[in-house]
Every structure is written in C-alpha cells, then in structure tokens.
C-alpha cells in the first residue's frame, strides 16, 4: 500500500492505525458522550424543578402608603437607599 489521496475508508483506518490509538479514541468518545448526557440530564432536571418566588421588594398587595419602597431582609429594612425611613410598613408574613 502506498500513499493515497482522499479520505481513508473505515477498513483502512482499522487496518493501518495502531490498536492502542483506536482504543484510546473510542474511550475518549464514550467519555465525551457520557459527560454530555449527564450534563444534559442535569440541566433539564434543574430547569424543570425550579420554583420562582416574587422578589421581596414586590410583596405588598395593598398600595404602599407609608414609605415608597418595599424593603428586604428579616426586618424588611434593607433597601438600596440605606434609609429605613423610606421603607414601607413591614409585612412579616412574607417570609413564612
């Protein structure tokens, strides 16, 4: 057999390549497919079991009359303004 041009056939690949290279290639391919399948399964599982909650600054069902920001945190005094006086009246039932 001499040099040839073009794509070798499968039988030429199996006949001419060292056996260790063929085995190593198949192991890498199997590991790649296994990793891809595990990542896909994990991603689908995470996306299908995610539950969303309303953000803490959106908890009020009545108009905000006391302050003009619904604040977050255990005491509902955390806001981007760092001023608890700008927070509306706390709704303690939000975190239960």
Commentary on this structure:
The chain is mainly α and 96 residues long. It has 2 domains: 10-48; 53-91, no CATH class. The protein is 39% helix and 0% strand. The chain has 2 helices and no strands. The chain has helices at 10-16, 19-48. The longest helix is centred in the middle third of the chain and has 30 residues, at 19-48. The mean pLDDT is 78.
Topology, pairings included?
Elements: H1 10-16, H2 19-48
Question: Features of this protein?
Answer:
2 domains, 0% strand
Report the sheet with the most strands, covering strand number, pairing sense and barrel closure.
none
Counting DSSP E segments of at least 2 residues, the number of strands comes to 0
Number of helices: 2
| Structural class by sheet pairing and helices | mainly alpha
Mean pLDDT: 78
- Estimated share of beta-strand residues: under 5%
Number of domains: 2
H/E topology pattern: HH
Separation of the first and last Cα atoms:
78 Å
Helix content: 25-40%
Radius of gyration: 31 Å
Q: Given the C-alpha coordinates, what overall shape results?
A: rod-shaped
What are the low-pLDDT stretches, counting only 5+ consecutive residues below 50? none
Question: Outline of this structure?
Answer:
Keywords: Membrane, Transmembrane, Transmembrane helix. The protein is mainly alpha-helical and 96 residues long. It has two helices and no strands.
